[in-house]
Amino acid sequence: MGKKLHERRERDDMQLALLRTSLANRRTLLTYCNASIAMCLTGVGFLKLMEHAVYTALGSVLLVLSPLTLGLGLYDFFLTRKLIQKEKEDARV
């Protein structure tokens, strides 16, 4: 009976670890989205409110980096999700 209980606890621990990893992956995607939105809004603000050439250039750079950041976040999310799914299949959880 002790062996079965030990195996069940190991399986439960693995399920919890995979769930925590999945939730962390979602939080990371939301962080990338948050950063992308912040860059976009800051870039628009610099372009609309500031008239100095440095701010105009910085605003333009931020507007270019914003979708790149979002794309990187999506790429990372789907790559990590695929790895998590593979780990679930390997663990047979």
From TrEMBL:
Q: Where is the DUF202 domain?
A: 20-81
Claim: Membrane is one of the keywords in the record: yes
Bilayer-crossing regions: 29-47, 53-78
Q: Which UniProt keywords apply?
A: Membrane, Transmembrane, Transmembrane helix
Query: What top-level branch of life does the organism fall under?
Result: Bacteria
Q: Where in the cell is it found?
A: Endomembrane system
Grouped into one coarse class, the protein's main location is membrane
Query: What name does this protein carry?
Result: DUF202 domain-containing protein
InterPro entries in UniProt: DUF202
Entry membrane topology: Multi-pass membrane protein
